[in-house]
Amino acid sequence: MGLSRVRAVFFDLDNTLIDTAGASRKGMLEVIKLLQSKYHYKEEAEIICDKVQVKLSKECFHPSSTCITDLRTSHWEEAIQETKGGTANRKLAEECYFLWKSTRLQHMTLAEDVKTMLTELRKEVRLLLLTNGDRQTQREKIEACACQSYFDAVVVGGEQKEEKPAPSIFYYSCDLLGVQPGDCVMVGDTLETDIQGGINAGLKATVWINKNGIVPLKSYPVPHYIISSVLELPALLQSIDCKVNMSA
């Protein structure tokens, strides 16, 4: 790490600033209720939602060949058919998808203490939101949680040539803020994208948010710092800057 003070912080969005996983679970619970009350499904309702969750985790999205709405409706359509048999039911799949999506977006909020932290940090450093994912999906989340105003810039991977962990998206982000990679810290919950990307781009430091005390595989990238909540970041940044002052 270089001997300059931190000038900019790049934040991941999903499961770093907002509880995307929790919001998604709430969406699934609403779909289970719908399938059980309106369509009289029993345990099949949970099986369908579990199958969709697996499909989402393995999702490969290519915007040139399909739109995210069609792709995710197909996840539901396939899961229903795999579980119930019979002919495909696109109409029910659409109903499930849009209920899941709308419920999920309703629960994507920036907590008040996170808003306060971002507001205070921005008095000291520049802030950039750096999120992977499909343009439409991520922009809808950004709008739902009303986080854009807390940042100097927002960069969505699906709008760029390459996503995290490619160095190019980090260099682009640096250029937007008028800073060098060695001035910046990347904060995120995913080792393979947030942390690996920050290392690839030669950032000053990477900070991994490990909420559940996971022990990563040895093959995974090693972050410079680990915290259990994004709210621990201001104190960590102070300690990083203290090290710079002591070295100087």
TrEMBL record:
Cofactor(s) needed = Mg(2+)
| GO aspect biological process, one term | N-acetylneuraminate biosynthetic process
Q: Which domain of life is it from?
A: Eukaryota
EC number(s) recorded for this UniProt protein? 3.1.3.29
Its annotated pathway reads: Amino-sugar metabolism; N-acetylneuraminate biosynthesis
Give the matching Gene3D superfamilies.
Answer: HAD superfamily/HAD-like, Haloacid dehalogenase hydrolase-like domain
Molecular function, one GO term? N-acylneuraminate-9-phosphatase activity
Task: Report which reactions are catalysed by this protein.
Answer: N-acetylneuraminate 9-phosphate + H2O = N-acetylneuraminate + phosphate; N-glycoloylneuraminate 9-phosphate + H2O = N-glycoloylneuraminate + phosphate
Alphabetically list the UniProt keywords: Carbohydrate metabolism, Hydrolase, Magnesium
Please report which protein family the annotation says this sequence is part of: Belongs to the HAD-like hydrolase superfamily. NANP family.
PANTHER family given in the database record: N-ACYLNEURAMINATE-9-PHOSPHATASE (PTHR46470:SF3)
- Identify this protein by name: N-acylneuraminate-9-phosphatase
